[in-house]
Design a protein that fits this description.
Residues 43-149 form the VanZ-like domain. InterPro entries: VanZ-like (IPR006976). This protein is mainly α and 157 residues long. Helices cover 74% and strands 3% of the residues.
């Protein structure tokens, strides 16, 4: 269902990424002095990750796991959406923890865990893909960099 929406409206993912890149450092800087709120926002940002990756879907699986290493592009809407999916959680975790590199690592491990769950639980109706992990990790790196920028804004005199 979400893929259909993204195919019909291919501008959604790039627009969401642009909004995150432009507003993320400023929102992150504001949250940097409010760690409890930053952690709450991180938890809230993980809800779409859980819903879009772990809620069972009714479809027939043709393969349980796909190994392919393709970089996301605007034309590959699902991979582009996978990038965007992990930007906000990584950004917010970077600000909340004040450790952008650790937030990136945690987000990448979380993505790998999601893919493993999809592979090990066929009842979800989802298949794992290395492309998804790669795209999620790219999004986590973008989020970590935005978190680092937000923390740098706070440290300025």
């Amino acid at each position: 269902m979400i893929t259909t929406v993204l195919v019909e409206h291919p501008w959604l993912s790039p627009t969401a990424l642009l909004v995150l890149v432009v507003l993320g450092p400023f929102v992150g800087a504001w949250l940097a002095t409010r760690p409890r709120l930053a952690w709450a926002a991180t938890a809230l940002a993980l809800v779409p990750v859980a819903v879009l990756t772990l809620v069972p879907v009714d479809r027939e699986l043709f393969s349980r796991c796909e190994v392919d290493w393709s970089l996301p592009t605007i034309g590959r809407v699902e991979l582009a959406a996978n990038v965007v999916l992990f930007v906000a959680p990584a950004l917010l975790a970077a600000v909340a923890s004040r450790r952008p590199a650790l937030a990136v690592l945690g987000a990448s491990v979380l993505s790998a865990a999601v893919e493993a769950m999809q592979a090990l639980v066929p009842a979800l109706g989802r298949s794992c893909a290395t492309n998804d992990w790669l795209s999620n990790t790219i999004g986590a790196v973008v989020g970590g960099l935005l978190g680092w920028l937000a923390l740098s804004l706070v440290r300025r005199p």
